[in-house]
# Entry
Amino acid sequence: MSAIFNENISPEQLEEMFRSDEKCLEFLAGIKWANGFVCKKCGNTNSCAGKEPFSRRCTKCKSKETATNGTIFHGVKFPISKAFYIAYNICKGKEDISSYEFGRRLSLRQMTCWNFKTKIKHALVDMDTLSVKERNSMRKS
# Structure
């Protein structure tokens, strides 16, 4: 999780990133496949564009992978730009924003914000239990 936000991002870049779901997916895909695509099913390294924006399709087994697969954002049922806003504020924010406040700011249900905030906090705790070698290998994949 913290690998996504380990870069120093200016407030202007942050605003631009959260502007649309497409920008968020582009950012995720850029990190996820920075070292090239590797199919999780067959290990093939060749892919083509998938049907969804910023997704890949294996040219050998035809399995598809979206930019959110295998990330904290997988399965989020609200706009990913709002999920990025919550995640960034939890990871890099200077203040602890309540789920009620996230709900108010983003026009989401409080419980939706609470569930996602909890998911992020659990992921961060899990990352804290990893060794330095494991964390570095996660950043590379």
Q: What stands out?
A: The longest strand covers residues 47-49. The first helix runs from residue 11 to 17.
